[in-house]
Design goal:
Low-confidence stretches of chain A: 1-32, 146-162
Number of helices of chain A: 17
Distance between the termini of chain B: 64 Å
Number of strands of chain A: 20
Radius of gyration of chain B: 18 Å
Strand order of the largest sheet of chain B: 7-8-9-10-11-1-2-3-4-5-6-12
Shape of chain B: globular
Distance between the termini of chain A: 27 Å
Mean pLDDT of chain B: 85
Structural class of chain B: alpha+beta
Low-confidence stretches of chain B: 1-7
Helix content of chain A: 10-25%
Oligomer: heterodimer
Largest sheet of chain B: 12 strands, mixed
């Protein structure tokens, strides 16, 4: 029996009856081991969820050239659309991916006027790939380390950051080029045509550091180029995704002076992709071949890391408050104004992090809300009155050790958040859970240092931890712990309660130890540190693969635990990488482009590709359905119904806005025991 | 054996536990100490893992992370590595001051360190220290071991050596393997600033 989404059950009475009997009379709480998580009744045989979240890779960027191995499986990617060929070269439909530039406009826009758009034409006219801040050469102090640093293949002890999986690839991948220069490792860089290009050649592969590309809220909406004027039957929301390099080249370009001042070097980096059919991201490909992949899973928030992780943890956006739950106006220097500086093509006036999207008069708000109102399903912006929402990366009001910043406004940190998290909901039901952040223990030590030194009370937490690292080198890796990736670090209910913090906020070493000891919580969220998270420029895709493999290897050694565990592998966002997929706008905040989701369990094998529309909040919905929880709040996205998909438009829900709970990625009547990797 | 006789011979190698106590005397964290010649190794009770190696002859203090094949200047990472080192029992203040300055915890001047009393019957020598803008703290030295055996903070908390065992120590415990690399936190910081982990306004 394949357990479909809730909407499918509504028309499948037989499925309802048989599944209900299974869940209520037999249940899935009859395991005979000593695993405490088994005591919690679940709607499926899944007793443990592990969610591993990498950084900044999109679906076409990672699986754009991928052919499903499952029988009769199809995938939507740049290969299946004919945009590129299997070797990554431009395909017959390459123009479908062409990118445009836009003539200067008087105000911020997300759907560029057709008359103002012009395609880049001629090789090299599209902004070209740039090294940006990727490391130029091997170093001895920070990745990429010199081979001598890790000459011994075997570490003395297992370690989440430096194991046999990672020790070799931490030594490789430097550019040997100047920063902020054309990335000549990429074949034909400098004369690339208008469209996606392959990150593969004699001098570049998935084992190389590459230049980052900006991924922020207003930039991302603008890149998506959404307008109902563009809508078609197959693309009913009218997002063309055709302004990616243009926005990167102009949002920080001071072209009102001679010479123009360019402070950002994202350039054309958004158009790069890997070729999974040619051994790029090979571990991810192997997992897709053997388990299940979604090709319609999306980042839940337009833009970057912090807001996407927060949406994942809450189904909502964070807002600026007085620290006691009451919305207030943030300092002026926190408020965004993406309108163009006079005389420039598109340079944002104030590229800041917060907007009151309930107020049409606020810069940047009206174009997005007007577009939402024009959509046939008229999604609510979900912007509460006088709430300034966090749109871009802002450190939490709590330090990793629970210290509460006394002046968050002055410290560029968002005050403690009252927004209910999935952790709160699991606590209410006494279901075990933990967030495992790489290098968290070191970050706590640095936080203690910063409190003692007094900097925690005056500085931004990134700065304070950095200063502490210089004085306390023994814990300096704590700067690689990602504060904004931990949605619970924002929450008063978790970080403001020492018992909660101690019980639920842990390090990667604890995840591995819990697997080993058979004490894995029901719900586990794993986030590698900044060296292993796969982020372009500061990490690599194969380093995140190594992190994933380490967790899978640990599980492999415990077959009983593995049998009742699903590992979801996904990313926080597409990192600004271009994607060809359909986007369903849900509210003011997103959705954004597609990101891969791999579902690894004994009930999701065979190389299937799932097309049901989903985003980060679908992971919440899976947890809530499996453990019988209610939606987090009356405004959180987990209230949305499961999509009713259609055969002729397999990527577009009939009942937008809608989000899958991912149950249809499993077949709980069909258990297949197989290794994660061959 | 007289104190004079002890002073003529090399100080013994030994191991001990460094036990922290709160102001009420309740024991807490336990770190492991090993001492040989001019070197000391401290394995602190710290979930981050690793150990300190100090060498008073070379004037170095490192923190070593075997799991990551790294070592780094100890800096101010631990008070233990600045205090629990071999000292001249008749002039420890000079070494303590130098260690504090080297770690960055103290700039020159405004430092007072002096022996309390003289020639106590049990041989244990007491020193009191006055740091800039801080109340008095006290330290005790065993002249036979040429090593501090107790530290008491102004608040009454203390660190004490317990389970002292005079015995030879394996030399390899005090050596950093040749393939370990020295980590510079500044370079690490620069790399991290290129990731989304860094969310300070200066990104």
């Amino acid at each position: 029996m394949r357990i479909n989404g809730r909407n499918h059950l509504a028309w499948s009475a037989g499925a309802i009856v048989s599944f209900s009997l299974l869940a209520t009379t037999v249940g899935f709480a009859d395991s005979k081991d000593n695993d405490a998580a088994d005591a919690a009744k679940t709607e499926s045989p899944i007793k443990h969820v592990i969610i591993l979240i990498g950084e900044n890779r999109g679906t076409d960027h990672t699986f754009g050239v991928y052919k499903p191995r499952g029988k009769h499986q199809t995938i939507s990617n740049i290969l299946s659309k004919g945009i590129v060929n299997e070797d990554g070269s431009p395909g017959a439909n390459f123009p479908l991916a062409q990118q445009f530039l836009v003539a200067p406009q008087p105000a911020y826009y997300i759907g560029a006027p057709k008359k103002a758009k012009m395609a880049y034409h001629g090789n090299g006219q599209m902004p070209q790939p740039n090294t940006n801040g990727a490391p130029s050469a091997q170093g001895t102090a920070s990745a990429p380390f010199t081979p001598a640093f890790l000459a011994e293949a075997q570490a003395l002890d297992p370690s989440p950051d430096f194991t046999t999986n990672t020790d070799t690839i931490l030594t490789t991948g430097f550019t040997n080029l100047a920063t902020n220069s054309v990335d000549s490792r990429i074949p034909n860089a400098g004369v690339l045509p208008n469209g996606p290009y392959i990150l593969q050649g004699p001098n570049i592969s998935d084992d190389d550091y590459t230049g980052d590309t900006t991924h922020r809220f207003y930039q991302a909406w603008q890149q998506s180029d959404c307008s109902m004027a563009n809508a078609t039957k197959t693309n009913p929301t009218g997002c063309l995704n055709d302004l990616f390099p243009f926005v990167m080249a102009t949002y920080d370009l001071g072209d009102n002076t001679v010479p123009a001042v360019q402070k950002n070097f994202s350039a054309g980096n958004s158009m790069g992709f890997y070729d999974a059919e040619q051994e790029q991201a090979s571990l991810l490909k192997t997992l897709a071949d053997r388990f299940a992949l979604s090709d319609n899973f999306h980042q839940s928030f337009q833009g970057g890391t912090g807001a996407n992780h927060f949406m994942f943890g809450t189904g909502d956006a964070a807002f600026w408050s007085d620290g006691n739950g009451n919305a207030i106006t943030p300092p002026a220097n926190e408020i965004a104004n993406p309108n163009p500086v006079s005389g420039t093509t598109n340079k944002y006036i104030a590229d800041n992090n917060f907007s009151n999207c309930s107020d049409f008069a606020q810069a940047g708000v009206a174009p997005i809300v007007s577009y939402l109102e024009a959509l046939p399903y008229r999604p609510e912006p979900n912007c509460a009155t006088a709430h300034y929402y966090m749109l871009d990366n802002t450190n939490p009001g709590f330090y990793p050790n629970g210290f509460r910043a006394p002046s968050p406004g002055a410290q560029n940190m968002i005050p403690a958040s009252p927004v209910r998290t999935i952790g709160d909901a699991l606590n209410d039901k006494k279901i075990s859970w933990a967030y495992f952040g790489g290098s968290y223990n070191d970050a706590v030590a640095l936080s203690n240092d910063a409190v003692t030194a007094g900097t925690a009370a005056t500085q931004n937490s990134s700065t304070a931890l950095g200063l502490a690292a210089l004085a306390d080198p023994a814990h300096s890796l704590g700067v690689a712990y990602c504060q904004i990736c931990n949605p619970f670090q924002y929450a008063t209910s978790i970080m403001g309660d020492p018992a909660q913090r101690t019980a639920h906020i842990k390090d990667t070493v604890d995840l591995l130890a819990d697997i080993q000891a058979g004490t894995l919580p029901s719900v586990s969220i794993g986030k590698p540190d900044g060296l292993l998270d796969g982020h372009p420029q500061s990490s690599k895709i194969d380093l995140f693969e190594a992190y994933v493999q380490q967790v899978l290897d640990a599980l492999e050694a415990h077959p009983k635990l593995k049998a009742e565990t699903v590992v979801f592998v996904t990313w926080d966002e597409a990192g600004g990488y271009w994607d060809s997929g359909f986007i369903q706008p849900i509210d003011f905040f997103g959705d954004g482009p597609r990101i891969p989701l791999l579902t690894l369990s004994e009930y999701s094998t065979g190389g299937a590709v799932n097309h049901t529309y989903a985003d980060h909040v679908s992971l919440l919905k899976f947890i809530e359905r499996n453990w019988k929880l209610k939606p987090l709040t009356d405004r959180s996205r987990d209230n949305l119904p499961n999509p009713k998909m259609r055969d002729d438009q397999p990527y577009v829900p009939r009942n937008m806005p809608a989000l899958s709970d991912l149950f249809d990625m499993f077949d709980f009547d069909h258990q297949v025991k197989q290794p994660f990797l061959e | 054996m007289s104190l004079c006789a002890r002073a003529q011979s090399a100080p013994p190698e030994f191991s001990a536990d460094i036990v922290s106590h709160d102001a009420a005397g309740t024991p807490g964290a336990v770190s492991k100490l090993r001492v040989a010649n001019h070197k000391a190794r401290i394995d602190p009770d710290d979930p981050s893992g690793g150990f300190f190696i100090t060498d008073t002859e070379a004037g170095t203090a490192y923190f070593v992370k075997p799991t990551q094949r790294l070592f780094m200047d100890a800096g101010q990472s631990s008070l233990l590595s600045r205090i629990f080192v071999r000292v001249d029992p008749h002039d420890p203040c000079r070494q303590w001051q130098a260690a504090a300055i080297a770690s960055g915890a103290l700039s020159a001047g405004n430092w007072r360190c002096e022996q309390v009393g003289s020639a106590p019957a049990d041989g244990i020598m007491e020193y009191r220290l006055l740091w800039p803008a801080q109340p008095l703290s006290r330290r005790w030295i065993d002249p036979h071991l040429e090593f501090p055996i107790k530290l008491q903070s102004p608040e009454g908390t203390s660190l004490m050596l317990e389970n002292i065992r005079v015995e030879a120590q394996p030399a390899n415990l005090f050596a950093i393997p040749a393939d370990y690399r020295k980590l510079d936190p500044r370079a690490l910081l620069e790399r991290i600033k290129h990731s989304d982990v860094w969310a300070a306004p200066d990104r």
